[in-house]
Amino acid sequence: MTSPKPMRDFSLEVFFSKWEFKAKHHMTASDLETLTLSQLLAMASEEDREKYDNLTLGYTETWGAPELRELIAGTYQSMQKDNILCLAGAGEGIYALARCLLTEKDHVIVPTPNYQSAETIPLAICEVTGVPLIEDNTGQSKGGWKLDIAGIKAAIRPNTKLLSINFPHNPTGYVLSAKELEDVITLCRENDIYLFSDEVYRGVELNSDDQMPQIADLYEKGISLNVMSKAYGLPGLRIGWIASQDKEVLLKVERYKHFLSICNSAPSEQLAIIALKNKDAILARNLNLMQRNVAELEQLFADYPGIIDWQRPLGGCVAFPRYIGPGNVEDFCKSLLEESGILLLPASIYASDLNEVSKDRFRLGFGRDKVFTEGLKAMRQYFEANFSDL
Q1: What does the DSSP assignment read for 107-172?
Q2: What Rg do the C-alpha atoms of the chain give, in angstroms?
Q3: What is the greatest pairwise CA distance in the chain?
Q4: Beta strands at 107-112 and 127-132: parallel, antiparallel or unpaired
Q5: Residue closest to 35 by CA, chosen among 369, 265, 287, 366
Q6: Do 223 and 234 touch, CB atoms closer than 8 A?
Q7: Could you tell me which residues are beta bridge partners of residue 86?
Q8: Taking the model in full, what pTM does it have?
Q9: Under a CB-based contact definition with an 8 Å cutoff, are residues 254 and 62 in contact?
Q10: What is the number of other CB atoms lying within 10 angstroms of the CB of residue 151?
Q11: Distances from the Cα of 197 to the Cαs of 101, 156, 167, 318, 334, in angstroms?
């Protein structure tokens, strides 16, 4: 047993703290186009608008408002209100669950690349094994990636406590096939392993046929994580949740939440209620935006071949294409930022402590409206100035 590692800085957030609100064109955003407060309130029923206007700004229930939990449960097939615990965004869920489930004697398996907290937080507690996603540039695998089921199986130890997955995937946009999902659940059930599933992009698959069921509905030791931030485009609400059949786990996290956020913001809960009551309209709007933006991206890459190796992601509003142009991806991203104010996330941001991640890729976001349109125009101008002779 090795000693836990100190938690290293969150590379993505450190990078964003410097550039997210300074760069002219934020072309690597991981959330969908947001709504203004007035736009969201315009969707509210008269009753819900009155509740918001007359809301008292006191403490709220630690588990989350009952009506909010009922609505969240309704987004699952078999969950009830008591299967839902609300949290202050998805980040609190990732952190609190690891602290509640894991000890130094345990072992965790995490695919790479990943959203860094999925590996950094467990690494501060116990041993963690990374299993790289398999890159498929042959065009035979839908979405350009595969989950290494054999690698996960080989990584399982007698003390493996948790497998942490994230699909639709950040940053690749990959979504598990029905067979991959079945194999993952079978492995976890046979080895009595918790399956933590980050599902924050569920609902904005580019093709609805690719949508996965939610882990909490399928597996008795499954824990689903979701949030209003990504697919719904409402990160300012800071409302997230976990769902599970295992109420003992939920209770442990609820007790741990007492040391963290304690409870959610009352206005945010009421606004989340309004959003969830209008979820179909919000998700449809966001999906239409993504589909438009992907088509425009693909036209740019087709107009300048030999620069970007692109495969359309299956779900979510981010992709992880390969840079195949002159120089390397780090210089490409730096040049875009310095010359055109275009912000991308180079491969170095996704470096892992567990195994090597492709060094020639970058994260591109396509979930915004005007920001994306203006950024794509600037990117086209950059390509014309730098790659027109290739």
Answers
A1: EEEEEES--THHHHHHHTTSEEEEEEPEE--SS-STTSEE--HHHHHHH--TTEEEEEEESS-TTT
A2: 21
A3: 63
A4: parallel
A5: 369
A6: no
A7: 241
A8: 0.95
A9: yes
A10: 16
A11: 14, 17, 7, 18, 33
For residue 203, the 8-state DSSP code is T
Structure token digits, residue 109? 């398996």
* Dihedral (CA of 5, 192, 221, 218) sign: positive
Find, among 224, 225, 230, 228, the residue nearest to 267 by Cα.
Answer: 228
For residue 189, give the 3-state DSSP assignment: helix
Angle 188-189-190 (CA atoms, 0-180°, nearest 5)?
95
d(CA 331, CA 58): 50
First-residue to last-residue Cα distance in the chain? 53
Of 347, 344, 349, nearest to 379 (Cα)?
Answer: 344
CB-based burial of residue 195 (10 Å sphere; 0-12 exposed, 13-18 middle, 19+ buried)? Answer: buried
CA 207/CA 348 separation, integer angstroms: 30
How many CA atoms, within 13 angstroms, populate the side-chain half-sphere of residue 96? Answer: 28
Per-residue pLDDT of the chain (390 residues; tens, 9 = 90+): 556 778 888 888 888 888 888 899 999 999 999 999 999 999 999 999 999 999 999 999 999 999 999 999 999 999 999 999 999 999 999 999 999 999 999 999 999 999 999 999 999 999 999 999 999 876 666 788 999 999 999 999 999 999 999 999 999 999 999 999 999 999 999 999 999 999 999 999 999 999 999 999 999 999 999 999 999 999 999 999 999 999 999 999 999 999 999 999 999 999 999 999 999 999 999 999 999 999 999 999 999 999 999 999 999 999 999 999 999 999 999 999 999 999 999 999 999 999 999 999 999 999 999 999 999 999 999 999 999 877
Q: Which two tokens stand for residue 66?
A: 């009952």
**Which two three-digit tokens encode residue 349?**
């941001």
Query: Which structure tokens are listed for 187?
Result: 């492995």
Length of the chain: 390
Cα–Cα distances in Å, from 69 out to 89, 94, 214, 269?
A: 14, 19, 16, 10
